[in-house]
Structures are given as C-alpha cells and as structure tokens.
C-alpha cells in the first residue's frame, strides 16, 4: 500500500510537470494567456524564465520565485527594541514572591539593581519599587545584526553640544589673546610701535586658522588609505597610512624559502630577519624585532615597565591614561637615579680612594715584568725562584669580625674553642681585649674565694643517735631496751586476748583496736606465740 502511494505521487508530479511544459510552449506561441508575476505584471515570454518553474516538492499551484527567497520566514519577526525604563504597576504593599530588597515582582533580590537597603521592603512595606516592563520578542536576520538597533537619535545632541562648547571656548580664547596683544601694543612706547607693528600682525595671523595650509594638508593626504581597523565583520573604522614606499620590495618577497622568517598577513609583521646571512650594509629591512629593540622603541618599553612598577608600588601612574605625566615622572626618576649613583660613587671613592687619580703604575707592574729569575723542570714545575704557594681552602680564612684581632679557634681552654685576643669562648661575642681578660680572671678568683668561704662556714652535720625500735614484722635488734613494767602489762593483755579467742562469750561488745604497737607489746606477742618449728612446743 505504501509503495502504491509513492508510485501515485511520482506519477502525479510527472503529469504536472508535463502540463507545465505544454502551457509554457503554448504561451510562447501566443495560444495561451500571458503569465502574471506576484506584483500583477505580465512576464515577457521572449525572456527565458528558468527560475519561474518551481520545484515539484513545493507543491506550488502556479510558477513563482518563492523558492528563491526564505519562504520559511516568520512574519512575527520584528525590529523593535526594548522600552527602556518603562514601568507597568506600582504596588503599595509587599507581595509574596517579590524582591525582598525593593519589592518589585519582576526580579529577585539577587538580581536587584537598587541600592541594598538596611531593612528590605519585605519587612518595612515602604517605598515599594514599581514593576519593570519585561518584553520578549524575536528579531529577524537583519535585526540581530543591526548595530544601531535600539539607538535613540535624540541623544546625539549631547555630542553636538560638546563640540559647539569646545568651538566657543576656542574662539573666546583667540579673542582674549588678540585683546591682550592690543593692550600690550598700546602700552608700548610710540617709538617701538612702528617697529613692532609688523610682528603683531604676524602673530595675529598665526592665531587664525590658515585655510590655505589646511587645503594643502588635505591635498597631501592623497596617499592616505581608508580601511577598517581591527574589525571582523563589524567594528570601528579608522585611517591607516601606508608608509611603505611602493618601489621597495615587500618584506615577504625578500626570501621565498618556506623555512625562512614567518610573515603574518593579518598584522603584516615579520619579526625575524628574512636574510640573516646577508651583508648588513646591503639590507634595508632587519625584521620587526630590530626596530622594537633599538631607538626610541626601547626607551618607550623601559618607560612602560617603569609605569607598571610604580603603579604596583601604589603610585597613581598610568602610561595609557596620562602619557605626559608618565614621561615626566620617568625623567625625574632617571635624574634621581643618576644622582644617587654619583653620590654612592663619591662616597666609595672618599672612603677607599681612587687608584686612577694616584701616581701612575710602574712599567714593571703594568707589563707584568720583573727581574726575578724562575727555574722550571721538564714537567713545568717550579724548581727555584718563586715561593711555594700554599693551596687555599674552600672555607673563608683570616676573616676578622666583631672587632676581633684573631680568628675563631685560636684559643683553647677547658675543652672549648675561643678567641685568643680576648679569651672568649662565645662565637658571636664582641671583642673586649685585655680588659675582658682581666675582668674574666677577677671574676674567676672571686668565685673561687666565695666557694672556699662557703665550705669553711658550713659545719659538719652531727650524727643523731637514733634509738632503734622494733617494728612489726622486723627482727629484734640486739641493742633493744625494754621497760619491765610495760612488758608485764603487755604479757597480761596478751593472755586475756588468747582467752577471748578461745571463748567468744568473754569478748566484750565494744572492741577498741589501735594500730600503735609498742616494742613491749611486740615482745609479749613473740613470747606468747606458738613456735611451730620448735620440737619442744608440746612440753610447754
């Protein structure tokens, strides 16, 4: 079924095309009425209308040139622009979803262009901003690329007013200068009037614009080339002067080797030298880098660097915004720098002297000649005539610091290194000389005297005779002295304790224990306790 539909459509298109050809032949022969175009005009049949036959896929009822245009164009396209600053509604209270800062419904607080309020309109309900008019429309092809779309021509009167104000100021200044010169002329003496009259007329002529010179300058601009500057399909236009003499060979034709200096056709620059091996005297072009690194270009580069560094250090200076100020500050900087260099040089020469201003160097030292005889062996070693040069160390030698007259390590005492000049053992100490040595010796003697006096004043500690006591769990000392009465009482108490252990009924209700054990009680316990290792314990 689908194939049958395709076959019917192809057959119908062939029949329509055949009928269209027959109709055109009949019109050429005058047998059919003439065809009218879209504007209602008669199409000349003698002119071949190749474009009048529309393709079959347009399904056009009559031949037209519709397929030659953008027949899919949307009639809704417009070239209108946004209504700037238009407002549509002024609310009196805050509405939900509006901007929290100003109260307008057409944007959020993040995109609000009003001044941030201390307390937003959401909380104050005051000074609610009106809603902006938001438009959305589609631009056609020309409207998207129209550079002046949305431009208000009435704003150009500001530019006109500015130029008129400048012209009025210029005329006013010229008039004041003329009046000033006339006053000076009247104040001069009568004898000088005749001599200076010619000069004043020349000055007055200089103040006026010489139209003849202007015409001459315009005529001299015949070599000026008008072209677009830095534009890609649209941008600012300007004037570019072609400074190259037409008789000179173009820089890209000097060397046709592919591996030679690169030529950029967009900027018309060739940085490297196209003929590096040629004679410099015969070359008229050495590459753009040669011009950048020589002459005033190098000075201009240094001035740029100075302005950048000065701006980074906080100075209000900009090479492009105020070039005259930057150039003046750079000149002052160079003068101050030269003055500082001269002052430093004079200070050094004043301190160390200037060998160039002293007596001339002897000819022997100047030419490196002397009367000393030096003998060498076959290997080139010196045998006689010159002192043996000791090899130098990679470390610094004979460096005296902190007013010392000897190096560190020239003194040794009590397993410590020091300086021999002041006998100090501190590395970064300041030299005190012989006075420091005497002071150190005096302090050492004083310290020794104080130690001796302290040892003499201290008495030897007396030996305290301690009475050795028998403690719980310790052996009985041999020099133990016991009180016989206290021992008898302790034996009685021990017997009572033994009886209470045997018969619990005799134990009192309130029992008082004490941790203080006397030697007598300890001896009574030893005497009454059962000695299990004693073989005669059963006969006691």
UniProtKB/TrEMBL annotation:
It comes from the Eukaryota. The keyword Signal does not apply. Residues 491-506 have a biased composition (Basic and acidic residues). The keyword Protein biosynthesis does not apply. Residues 139-410 form the Pre-mRNA-splicing factor SLU7 domain. Residues 190-208 have a biased composition (Acidic residues). Keywords: mRNA processing, mRNA splicing, Nucleus, Spliceosome. InterPro entries: Slu7_dom, Splicing_factor_SLU7. It is found in: Nucleus. Residues 181-216, 490-512 are annotated as: Disordered. Pfam families: Slu7 (PF11708). Belongs to the SLU7 family. Involved in pre-mRNA splicing. This is Pre-mRNA-splicing factor SLU7. It comes from Brassica rapa subsp. trilocularis. The lineage of its organism: Eukaryota, Viridiplantae, Streptophyta, Embryophyta, Tracheophyta.
């Amino acid at each position: 079924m689908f194939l049958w539909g395709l076959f019917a459509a192809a057959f119908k298109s062939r029949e329509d095309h055949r009928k269209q050809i027959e109709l055109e032949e009949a019109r050429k022969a005058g047998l059919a009425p003439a065809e009218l175009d879209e504007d209602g005009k008669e199409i000349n049949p003698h002119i071949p209308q190749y474009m009048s036959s529309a393709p079959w896929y347009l399904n056009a009822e009559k031949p037209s040139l519709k397929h030659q245009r953008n027949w899919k164009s949307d009639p809704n396209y417009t070239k209108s622009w946004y209504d700037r600053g238009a407002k549509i509604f002024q609310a009196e209270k805050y509405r939900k979803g509006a901007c929290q800062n100003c109260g307008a419904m057409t944007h959020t607080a993040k995109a609000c262009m009003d001044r941030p309020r201390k307390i937003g309109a959401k909380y104050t309900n005051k000074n609610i901003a009106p809603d902006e008019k938001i438009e959305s429309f589609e631009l056609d092809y020309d409207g998207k690329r129209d550079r002046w779309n949305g431009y208000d021509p009435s704003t150009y009167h500001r530019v006109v007013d500015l130029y008129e104000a400048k012209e009025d100021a210029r005329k006013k200044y010229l008039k004041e200068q003329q009046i000033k010169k006339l006053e000076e002329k009247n104040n001069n003496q009568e004898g000088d009037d005749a001599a200076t009259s010619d000069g004043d007329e020349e000055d007055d002529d200089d103040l006026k614009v010489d139209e003849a010179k202007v015409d001459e300058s315009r005529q001299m601009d015949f070599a000026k080339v008008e072209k677009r500057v830095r534009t890609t399909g649209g941008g600012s236009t300007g004037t570019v002067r072609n400074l190259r003499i037409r008789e000179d060979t173009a820089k890209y034709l000097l060397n046709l080797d592919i591996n030679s200096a690169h030529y950029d056709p967009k900027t018309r620059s060739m940085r490297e030298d196209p003929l590096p091996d040629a004679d410099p005297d015969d070359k008229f072009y050495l590459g753009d880098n040669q011009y950048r690194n020589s002459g005033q270009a190098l000075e201009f580069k240094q001035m740029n660097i100075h302005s950048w560094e000065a701006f980074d250090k906080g100075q209000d200076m900009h090479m492009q915004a105020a070039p005259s100020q930057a150039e003046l500050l750079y000149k002052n900087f160079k003068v101050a720098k030269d003055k500082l260099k001269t002052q430093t040089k004079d200070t050094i020469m004043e301190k160390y002297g200037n060998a160039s201003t002293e007596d001339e160097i002897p000819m022997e030292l100047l030419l490196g000649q002397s009367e000393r005889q030096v003998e060498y062996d076959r290997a080139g070693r010196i045998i006689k005539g010159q002192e043996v040069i000791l090899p130098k160390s990679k470390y610094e030698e004979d460096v005296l610091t902190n007013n010392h007259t000897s190096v560190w390590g020239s003194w040794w005492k009590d397993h410590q290194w020091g300086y021999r000049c002041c006998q100090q053992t501190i590395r970064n100490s300041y030299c005190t000389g012989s006075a420091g040595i005497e002071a150190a010796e005096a302090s050492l003697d004083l310290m020794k005297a104080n130690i001796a006096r302290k040892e003499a004043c201290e008495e030897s500690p007396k030996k305290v005779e301690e009475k050795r006591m028998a403690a719980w769990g310790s052996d009985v000392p041999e020099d133990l002295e016991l009180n016989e009465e206290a021992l008898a009482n302790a034996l009685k108490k021990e017997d009572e304790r033994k009886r209470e252990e045997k018969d619990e009924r005799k134990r009192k209700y309130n029992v008082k224990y004490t941790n203080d054990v006397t030697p007598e009680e300890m001896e009574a316990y030893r005497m009454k306790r059962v000695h299990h290792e004693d073989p005669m314990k059963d006969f006691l």
